[in-house]
Design a protein that fits this description.
heterodimer, A: about 325 residues, alpha/beta, 8-stranded mixed β-sheet, 4-stranded antiparallel β-sheet, globular, B: about 325 residues, 6-stranded mixed β-sheet, 11 helices
């Protein structure tokens, strides 16, 4: 049994225009100490998939079905009161924008000790010394002094390290990092990714990394799920995925990168993502796909395991033949 | 030279955003101005368009000094320089239709009568790959990529000599980014404008730029032909920047030697003495703390760097001690 098992997850939101189906039948697993990347472009459902685990979605308008099991325990039906013990303690989240996710009116030290005092019931004294250790763990120099500082006194990279320190304060089993380095400069990004690697190695934390950046995926993830229009279209160990992409969308993404330019041109993916309001019984990518044939319009390709261990949802998968 | 910037300084109060920067841009050339947040790269773009007043230094546009021109005297010159902004959401007026937005520069500069305007807008929309029915749409009805095409159409309709593009593809998804980058390449080749392309993304300038200038804390630390800079970066900061950007290939990426810089970018309010990079440079020695290195090109091959360690027969290697 995996640490986290998501099965047939569907998430939709009631809007004025109707039901927006953000996630469509996602199934995935996460093992202890594993870094799993959820990648894809804006609106593909990668963040909604991950936020379904701690249920950080508006309850009034969210329609969620399927199963999310952490250590065998079902989270989708867990009462709100019990969920509070899961959030921050067993599953925690690092968001993209460290400035808006820290409270500007409290010191760094207060914001870390708050979590420890609430979840771990530590004394003020014990929480303080643990907080200093945590700041050290995430590579913040002079942690004693930083404890007294406020978010506006820190740089972007330092704020994101504080966010990570808060997120790992209660040694969560699963850490969800939603575009954690997207707002940071590359030289700072490298250091923050090292912190994640280090947490996994030292504490065995399992990490779901949500990113649109294939360079980051290549750098740090063990396995990756590529999402398109709410569905997983391909899933494979990272080295495998890049060496041998099977789904035409995965290949399209890789070829569209500026570093993949051929003869001064980039490979474009023509057309646009289909509307999340409808869901015809066909491959969602067929209208943009160079390999599309009649069968792609007649039925939706299921996510199938191929000989090389890839899961791909395509009737005409490429790769090593 | 379409653009010549000589010793440009721009201070915002205590903040020394740009602190003595010189560069030149030739006719039809694409120059990638690269740097991280706070390096001053966007301020350079704003000074070129006189959207902000330079503190000192000189800016020459097509041989004419525009540094101290009045707003009125500047107006006719605005035909020749246009800007493309990063955020395609906030840079288009939500109350105007796409047709009105693209026609605006023609009307403002009174270069076409009403009938002519319509034809030129149509032609421009076609050039940037937007269907004619987009004319009557409003910005909120368009996708991010389509809006950025509108931004390009507006910037190019007067056939300017120089386009300043400030992170024009950074807010776009990769697949959309690819088509906008291809479009910029095509338009630049067809129309022949010069382009100051400001970005933090090295892979984008590698694709697009003829030449690159790397900025750190308000100064250029290295400049040269794109292929040269990527193949053999001379300044330790450029080396660190190139090594920090992850490559989308797990095998190569995990074998690479990465130069991890210590600490943060110092504040531009109180930049370090000597070389501004010395507080984070793995190779810094005594002279770096006191003497400011000048941009020098000891090999005379158009690839100067501002580092004491660059000599005729030696280039520093920031990864040497890894």
């Amino acid at each position: 049994m995996s640490l986290l098992e998501i099965t047939d997850l569907r998430v939709g939101f009631d809007t004025e225009d109707g039901l927006v189906q953000a996630v469509r039948d996602i199934s995935l697993t996460l093992d202890e100490g594993e870094i799993l990347a959820l990648c894809g472009e804006s609106g593909c459902g990668k963040s909604v998939t991950a936020m379904s685990v701690p249920r950080l979605l508006p309850p009034e308008t969210t329609r969620l079905s399927g199963s999310v099991r952490l250590d065998g325990r079902e989270l989708t039906t867990l009462p709100e009161a019990d969920l509070r013990h899961v959030r921050g303690k067993e599953v925690s989240v690092v968001f993209q924008e460290p400035m808006t996710s820290l409270n500007p009116s409290f010191s760094v030290g207060y914001q870390i000790t708050e979590v420890l005092r609430r979840h771990e019931r530590l004394s003020r004294q014990a929480a303080r010394s643990r907080a200093v250790e945590l700041l050290e763990l995430v590579g913040i120099p002079a942690p004693q002094r930083r404890m007294k500082e406020y978010p506006h006194q820190l740089s972007g990279g330092m704020r994101q390290r504080v966010m990570i320190a808060i997120a790992v304060a209660c040694s969560p089993r699963v850490l969800i990092a939603d575009e954690p380095t997207t707002a940071l400069d590359v030289t700072i990004q490298a250091g923050v990714l090292d912190v994640f690697r280090d947490l996994r190695d030292r504490l065995g934390t399992a990490i779901i990394l949500i990113t649109h950046d294939l360079g980051v995926v290549a750098d740090i993830a063990d396995r990756a799920v590529v999402m398109y229009a709410g569905r997983a279209v391909e899933q494979a160990p990272v080295a495998e995925l890049f060496a041998n992409p099977r789904h035409p969308y995965t290949l399209g993404l890789m070829n569209a990168l500026p570093s993949a330019a051929v003869g001064g041109r980039l490979a474009e993916i023509p057309g646009m993502v289909p509307s999340p309001l409808s869901d015809p019984d066909e491959c969602a990518f067929q209208a943009r796909c160079p390999r599309a044939q009649g069968d792609c319009r007649a039925a939706r390709p299921p996510l199938e395991r191929h000989a090389d261990g890839h899961l791909a949802a395509c009737f005409h998968p490429g790769g090593k033949q | 030279m379409i653009l010549r910037i000589d010793n440009l300084v721009k201070h915002y109060g205590q903040v020394r955003a740009v602190d003595g920067l010189s560069l030149e841009l030739a006719q039809g050339e694409v120059l990638g101005l690269v740097g991280e947040s706070g390096s001053g790269k966007s301020t350079v773009g704003k000074c070129v368009l006189r959207l902000t007043e330079p503190t000192s230094g000189a800016i020459e546009l097509d041989g004419r000094d525009i540094t101290h021109l009045s707003r009125r005297a500047m107006r006719p010159l605005r035909r020749d320089v246009h800007m493309v902004f990063q955020d395609p959401y906030s840079s288009l007026n939500p109350r105007f239709t796409i047709g009105q937005i693209v026609a605006e520069p023609l009307l403002r500069h009174k270069v076409a009568d009403r009938r002519e305007v319509s034809g030129r807008v149509s032609a421009m929309l076609e050039k940037v790959g937007l269907r004619q029915e987009m004319r009557s749409r409003f910005p909120h009805e368009l996708s991010g990529g389509q809006r950025q095409r509108v931004g390009l159409a507006r910037a190019l309709i007067l056939e300017p000599k120089l386009v300043v593009a400030d992170e024009p593809v950074s807010a776009l998804d990769v697949s959309v980014q690819a088509s906008v980058l291809n479009l910029i390449t095509d338009l630049q080749r067809d129309m022949g404008f010069s382009c100051l392309f400001i970005t933090h993304d090295l892979s984008v300038v590698e694709f697009l730029a003829d030449r690159i200038a790397v900025m750190y804390l308000g100064k250029i630390v290295e400049t040269g032909p794109t292929a040269e800079i990527f193949a053999a970066p001379r300044h330790p900061y450029t080396q660190a920047l190139l090594s920090a950007a992850p490559v989308p290939d797990p095998v190569r990426q995990r074998e690479r030697r990465r130069i991890v810089l210590g600490g943060d970018v110092p504040s531009p309010v109180d930049p370090p003495s000597g070389c501004r990079f010395h507080t984070r440079c793995p190779l810094a020695y005594d002279a770096c703390r006191t003497e400011e290195p000048l941009l020098q090109d000891p090999r005379g091959n158009g690839h100067p760097a501002a580092c004491h360690l660059v000599t005729v027969d030696r280039v520093p290697d920031a990864a040497a001690n890894l």
